[in-house]
Design a protein that fits this description.
Layout (H helix, E strand, L loop, with lengths): L6 E5 L3 H12 L3 E5 L14 E2 L10 H23 L6 E2 L3 E5 L2 H16 L5 E4 H7 L9 E5 L3 E3 L1 H14 L3 E3 L11 E4 L17 E11 L11 E6 L2 E8 L3 E5 L13 H14 L7 E12 L6 E6 L2 E5 L9 H13 L21
Helix pairs in contact: 1-5, 1-7, 2-7
This protein binds glycine (GLY).
């Protein structure tokens, strides 16, 4: 029989932890979130792309399937949050993937071919056609793919919305850092890159992958940022430019494996600005509002770890580059686990059981 009562302790108050807590409390569980600074960490340092298709890595078909399944849940998830009181600012204008150099054009063509082969909606545009749709794109942009199905969300508005929604359904927050698992009928480990320290099954499985971002804002007299997400391939390097309401633009993100290091480096910022300026020359005149670094929770196969680690202890971590995208599917899967029901079929590849063979 399905359960919907009992106490649930969620360790970690980022987007994954808060989404799980909100869903569980809405379903009738008595939920606590344990985090010294809920709504911070890697979740605040993000572009907010909900883009399984344009972020897809060749050979990672399961990650694409997981992302696609979660993307389908996003409009309802955002709508429920807005109805609960705070709008996470979902954007539905899709993504442009743009190329700057001839070599990048080849990569774009391969992506277009791969997407149409798998039945995804995609349109190839010349540089001129792309500029007609997005006048801030610069003259070096020589080709673009329009992928209308991708979404984006303002990660900070989302965190505020989740915190408010959690409070609205009675989630209680505890500010202590967890040295051991909290006492509760069920514990959900959702501490992102810090999850490895919380359970032996996650040790040597979850690792920090640093990402730096730059936040800019257009100024009066400058060209406004694009209206949709721009995924750029510049000299073989991948970056993204995600617009925010009010002229904001997030540039992301570097990817470095340097342990628990959240220093922002001059080289990282230079890389992001140099690549972005080739795509959107107007950013040179924008205000530089913030630079920040966060730690993605990497896993050995780039899939998250969602499932039971031992009776009553569940993992919801390892989302790597896709934490925001995968939040709705993860929350549904965790709710199913708490109720003693099977997780949605699309989330099954994320089972911790697959990692047993990799255990040290
Ligand atoms: N999802 C993009 C990133 O992790 O940088």
């Amino acid at each position: 029989m399905s359960r919907s009562a009992g106490t649930v302790a969620v360790v970690g108050g980022g987007i994954i932890g808060l989404s799980c807590a909100w869903r569980a409390a809405s379903a009738g569980f008595a939920v606590t979130v344990h985090d010294p600074a809920p709504g911070s960490g890697a979740s605040r340092v993000a572009g907010g792309m909900l883009a399984p298709v344009t972020e897809a890595v060749p050979g990672e078909a399961q990650a694409l399937a997981l992302g696609t399944a979660s993307l389908r849940r996003w409009p309802a998830f955002a709508g429920e949050l807005a109805a609960a009181g705070a709008d996470p600012c979902l954007r539905t204008r899709g993504t442009f993937v743009v190329a700057v150099d001839p070599g990048d054009r080849g990569e774009l063509d391969r992506l277009a071919e791969q997407l149409s082969r798998t039945g995804r909606q995609v349109e190839v545009l010349s540089g001129r056609q792309a500029r007609r749709a997005e006048p801030s794109l610069g003259p070096q942009v020589c080709r673009a793919l329009s992928v209308p199905g991708d979404l984006s969300v303002d990660n900070r508005a989302l965190l505020d919305a989740l915190l408010a929604a959690c409070r609205g359904v009675g989630v209680r927050f505890h500010g202590e850092r967890c040295a051991r698992l909290p006492a509760a009928d069920a514990v959900v480990l959702a501490a992102g890159a810090h999850s490895a320290a919380l359970h032996p099954a996650l040790a040597r499985v979850i690792r920090p992958v640093k990402g730096e971002i730059v936040r800019l804002r257009s100024r009066p007299g400058t060209l406004a940022p694009p209206s949709r997400t721009v995924r750029a391939i510049v000299g073989g390097r991948h970056s993204y430019l995600v617009p925010r309401d009010g002229g904001g633009l997030v540039l992301g993100a570097t990817q470095r494996e340097t342990g628990f290091d959240t220093d922002v480096t001059a080289g990282g910022v230079r890389e992001l600005l140099t690549d972005a300026e080739r795509v959107l020359p107007a950013i040179a005149e924008y205000t530089l509002e913030e630079v920040a670094a966060g730690l993605r929770p990497g896993s050995p196969d780039n899939l998250p770890v969602i499932g039971e680690l031992e009776p009553g202890v569940f993992a919801a971590t390892g989302h790597h580059r896709n934490g925001i995208l995968l939040a709705p599917l993860t929350a549904d899967a965790v709710l199913a686990l708490l109720r003693g029901e099977p997780v949605p079929a699309e989330a099954q590849p994320a089972t911790p059981a697959r990692l047993v063979s990799r255990a040290p």
